[in-house]
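so my prof wants the structure for this chain in the tokens format not the other one, which i didnt know existed until like an hour ago. anyway here's the sequence
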Amino acid sequence: MTTFRGPSFQLVEQVSFEEFEFGAGIAGRATPLLVKGAVRHWPAWENWSFNNLADLCDTQASKVVSSFQTGLTEQGATRQRADLAVAPYLRELGRAAQVPPSDPARALLSLARRARLVPGEPFLLNWSRMDFIPDRVYLQQWDMLARLPRLRHDFPMRRLWPGLRKTWEYAFIGPADTLSGLHCDFPNNWFCQVRGTKEFILFTRDQTPHLSVATKYDWGATLSEVDISRLDQQPGVRDRFEQARGLYARVEAGDALFIPKRTWHAVVALEPSISIGIFGLTPGEIVIGGGIATARDLLHRAHLYRWGNCTCHQAQPA
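here's what i got, hopefully its the right format
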């Protein structure tokens, strides 16, 4: 994809942890915000290493096993998931994280290019970075805090989501070159990066006409047909995508990214990573958004709504 120009991007607005005042007002924000260094002030920064989490898994009375995603599920055919022990996977990631990247400049936006940008300056991304097949085994959307509840005390949930809100938390743990495909979620999300670095491309709601909304089903999310790992195989989708105007964030270990509800985003891991998405919903959002999502899910499981074209079940052969 070296000849693909792609959408025009600007940097996501960012502030330091010391500059930002966490509070209820964030939920009304319509654009993403990167809070640099936030996680470094919370216990997870000390406690959530790959090996520490593996040790905690090993102390449980029964072996901690989870369902692992293989490859990309938001676009293309969903593959069969594998049920694997979590601790050995974490230890392998810990070993991989000790190896420096072979090419530090291999990124959608290199640090050197980023340093030359001025606030508000539009830029293009290096799409030749997407030269890998997204086939990694990925512990995506793991309900880790339910399985290891003592970890819940390592994040200030009430500070992130003050007031009358319920939170749902999902961990994303995997090697370099994992990819979460382009999608948007119905709740607001604090995406907290504990280990490793990830690149985000994001699009506000008004860019939806350029993003080829898909019919593939996912609970709580709307998916795009834009597969950033194979844009050269999607000429029509790619041409529409090129008209979009996006935002870019490099989310490094210790950072927290606020993603407003219905904001489109795709995520590429530069390094072995531990991340957690903390979704905060008001009672009204639970009743309306959650109610609609639950009704669709019941229809889906009854084979009455997009069965066989979803992220939760392996694609059936044609």
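also thought this was worth mentioning. The two ends are 29 Å apart (CA to CA).
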